[in-house]
Amino acid sequence: MKIISSYSIKGGVGKTALAVNLAFAFREAGYRTLLMDLDPQGAASFYFRISGAEKFKMKDTKSVIDGLRRNIRESDFPGLDIIPSNLGYRHFDIQLDAMTKSRKQLRKVLEKFTPDYDVILMDCPPNITLLSENIFRASDAILVPVIPTVLSRRTFEQLLGFFQEEELPSDIIRPFFSMVQKRNKMHREIMVELPPLHPGFLKTTIPFSVDVEKMGIHKMPLLAYSRAGEASRAYRSLCNEILSPRCSEND
Amino acid sequence: MVESRESIRLILPGEVDPQCLGDIWDVVPGQQKSSALVFWDTFEWCLWFGTHTLYSADTTYSLTAGDHGWLDAVICHEKAMGLRRFWEDFQTEPLRSMLKETLELRALTVVAEGRHHHRCDELRNEDGKIVCRLEWTSVSAKQRESDVLKRYCQVFPLRGYEEEAARVVEQLTRHGAVTHGDGPLQVLLRHGQKEPIRYTLRPSFGLERNTPAREAVGRIVTPIFDLAIRNMPGIIDDVDTEFLHDYRICLRKMRSALNLVKNVYPVAETRRMRTILGELARQTNRLRDLDVYLLARNEYTMLLPPELRPMLKELFDDFASERKRELQQVISALRSTAAQKLLDEFAGLISPTHCHGPSINAEIPVGQLVFQRIYKRYKKIRLLSRDISWETSDEAIHHIRIECKKLRYLLEFFTELVSGEEMMETHKLLRRLQNRLGEFNDASVQQKSLLDYWQQKQAKDGTGLGLGGLVSILYQRQRQVRSQIVDALDEFCNSSTAGTFKNTFKRPLSPSIIDSGQEHIQ
Q: Among A14, A248, B1, B492, which is disulfide-ready with A178 (CB 3.0 to 4.6 Å)?
């Protein structure tokens, strides 16, 4: 089982769109996939028409496992299950803090889902907290959408700095360009400058697309209603790149 | 077809409008589909009695497990355009292996045909999320598609929405749906007035020790004669080789019953009956020989080194051509007025209404008559076994094989008259011995037959070489089996087995003692 996170310190970079469509693409590729919506905003759950998770106690690892398991919802697409968001996740940090080995609890929890799933994909909240650190330690790969803008680049570099400070393995960070507008000169320049500085950069880029924004109207992943569009092809290509043996070697 | 965990099957009382669920959920109807539905099984209903069902629809063969004829319990399937008759016609695993184990040499035939109409609907909640899937199915007869024989609804819960599925079941149950009832195959079988019947070459005869011997023989021969008749259409249609095999066994068993329990009919009548059975069997001798060879084609070929294997092609091609000709002759013979007359005459002779003349053993209790015979037969085998050694002639072994066969038939016919695990054990020992004797005889007969073919064809070059190789291997096999026969005979004739035969057949327990549950007379 592989654990993959869709993460960015900055909001509005296409993190949830990535998680939702990548989960759909994994399922299309035949992988039993579980999407965990850890962002209290619950956008990923909304895109699958799933209402918020039931509250559950998080006093120890077992209760977290039981609570998460009870909240698994089969999506409309067989092979893809969701654990919907819960406003209670905003207290995740406090709960984790109270546990021993608080930075590694999430990995322990997710390992219990190994028999049922081939891939667990986490849509993470846009901040750096104890939950984020748990996510970093639990993940086999952290996919970071980077809009080719100065601010987005800055937050990506902040993330790298955090990994260095905390002595986390930075090779699990797999950035890629998101919401790319090829006509934008600044986008083009940053896309030339940044990848050579960070060898883990994925080759696939996700274009800016109004189709992606329409996910809110359709309330389903882009890949489910627009199979042939440019953005859909890009998500599928990103999935293939992640699944390619070369990419796995880097993991 | 929708696949999901733990679906719930419901049998509907008639047409149920899916909109009966519309008050709670949005019912999103799927596309209505219809396909021809063909159920397959063997003459023996191997699949049915093995709780499997094989059906084809939309050019896919699907094998299901469990209750009879539910289309959704598919364990494996294969897409196939052409007709599939035998397990070896299937190309994919695990279907091929599973059918091999169940069908063996039997062919598949159509047991029921109909049409299958189905539609998958989705139930969505107020957020538009699918909370349950439903598959509505109806089965109708092939001839009158408009007449629906049965309607079903299968409820597929989604993980995390089990409560919704339970509510669906509850709603449909209020409309008369039930969870237990006939599956599509059962429905179509009933419509076609067909009923799977267990097939066995060892039927129960309902004998008791004091049944008069003539009546007992009649009770043995009559159902076996019926079995022989039931196998004839399969021979004529050349469905599979087992029809001829079983037909011949039936003829042989009837002859043996008449021969082994002597003087229950007037001598002339017995002779006539045996002549008829002999005549019917003779018509099929060569065809059966050829079947045996052709069934062993792969085995024989693989016995030879790879270089010699192609050299048997001509031999088997010749046998295959001869089989075609021989089959036509057998079909003509079986369809002939002469054969029909023989069968009618035999049926008349064994009919309970037939007036037979007197005969000395007719009214003797059968237990009294056959127990002596069984014990005598066993003693004879024991006596003959003393002379069996490494150097014994083939003829002597053949002789002992015939004696064993007679004993086995006697034990088989009258198995209802004895009880106890000890006899079961002797049955096993006898079967083991007979298997070895059979292998010995086959190897011997086949060598002779192959040498005859070689002489007749003046086979030279490759074919001659292939034949030579095969005859040598069969000779070696015969030699190996000979030593195994000596061991199996020792086991069957040892003092323990002899004691069982003596207790059971020389000093048999009276029926009243058996009934009261006491064991041996010391």
A: A14
Chain A residues whose CB is inside 8 A of the B160 CB are: 71-74, 81
Bond prior to A169 in cis (omega within 30° of 0): no
Q: Specify the CATH architecture of the domain A2-244.
A: 3-Layer(aba) Sandwich (3.40)
B489 and B343 in a single domain? The answer is yes
Residues B465 and B401 in one domain: yes
Cα–Cα distances in Å, from B168 out to B27, B165, B175, B252, B410?
A: 12, 5, 11, 60, 61
pLDDT at B518 exceeding the cut of 70: no
Contacts of B425 (CB under 8 A, 6+ apart): B497, B500
Note the pLDDT tens digit of each residue in B4-35: 458 899 999 888 888 888 889 999 999 999 99
Hey, are the CB atoms on A81 and B130 less than 8 Å from each other? Answer: no
Question: Same domain, yes or no, for B246 and B171?
Answer: no
Contact B159 A50 (CB under 8 A): no
Q: Please indicate, yes or no, if residue B334 is contained in any of the structural domains.
A: yes
**Neighboring chain B residues of A51 at a CB cutoff of 8 Å:** 127
- Does the CA dihedral B182-B183-B189-B195 come out positive or negative? negative
User: Chain B: residue nearest A79 by CA?
Assistant: B4
Mean pLDDT for chain B overall: 88
Best residue of B4, B6, B158 to probe chain A, by most A CBs closer than 10 Å: B158
Q: Is residue B75 part of a domain?
A: yes
Q: What is the CATH number of the domain that holds B327?
A: 1.40.20.10
CATH label of the domain that carries residue B185: 2.40.320.10
Contact flag A50-B130 (C-beta cutoff 8 Å): no
ipTM: 0.89
Query: What's the domain range around B481?
Result: 213-515
Whole-structure pTM value = 0.79
Residues 454-513 of B with CB under 8 A from A: none
pLDDT at B520: 33
Q: What local confidence, expressed as pLDDT, does residue A94 receive?
A: 64
Q: Any CB–CB contact under 8 A between B335 and chain A?
A: no
Q: What average pLDDT does this structure show over B196-221?
A: 92
What kind and span of H or E run contains A193? Answer: helix A185-197
- The residue assigned the tokens 């994919």 is B92
**d(Cα A150, Cα A155) in Å, to the nearest integer?**
9
